[in-house]
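Internal ticket #5521
Category: modeling
Description: The requester needs a full-assembly model to guide mutagenesis choices. All entity lines are attached below as received. Residue total reported by intake: 227.
Assigned to: D.W.
Attached entities:
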Amino acid sequence: DAGVIQSPRHEVTEMGQEVTLRCKLISGHNSLFWYRQTMMRGLELLIYFNNNVPIDDSGMPEDRFSAKMPNASFSTLKIQPSEPRDSAVYFCASTLYGDRVSGYTFGSGTRLTVV
Amino acid sequence: DAKTTQPPSMDCAEGRAANLPCNHSTISGNEYVYWYRQIHSQGPQYIIHGLKNNETNEMASLIITEDRKSSTLILPHATLRDTAVYYCIVRVATGGSYIPTFGRGTSLIVHP
């Protein structure tokens, strides 16, 4: 298994542009989590899904952020319009719902820079 | 959610044991303790977890005190590649899953 795959690895965009981050879950996993990491705030949970259904999006900063799971193995996090303060590393992680044994598997992250 | 407290940084000589403490004095009876680490520029990596018994796997050992108010992650023979930020997390239960909430962790530096 290739693990959790995120794309792109790096994204540089101008303020006001739309940004779409992508995440492919590990085959068989059915829970998906999006995190954001900055020096100031550390790792923050943005939103998570179980079986394609968003369960808790209270961590999403504002309406400019949206996340979807169009199918069981894929998710997108969209920022529209982007702002410089959105610059961060965005991670997604997947697990099998209810599995307390193997923990979460994280992707390698997308480093977003908004100029 | 039970809060965890970890020292911000530690260092260890290569080949020696690294003992990383974590305080979770408000942990409740059905909450697990999980450890993750994050090597620079990578995503967090699951290491080990436990409820009340000590646990060991190929990566580390986890020692949980009898009152469960603290735990220690042990890397028995630390290598330079173990330099990372180590996070101690107490399980937040939602249905059948748990949601890791990461604090600041302990930055472990393993030196030659």
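Resolution: model delivered.
Comment from assignee: The first strand of chain A starts at residue 5 and ends at 7.
Ticket closed.
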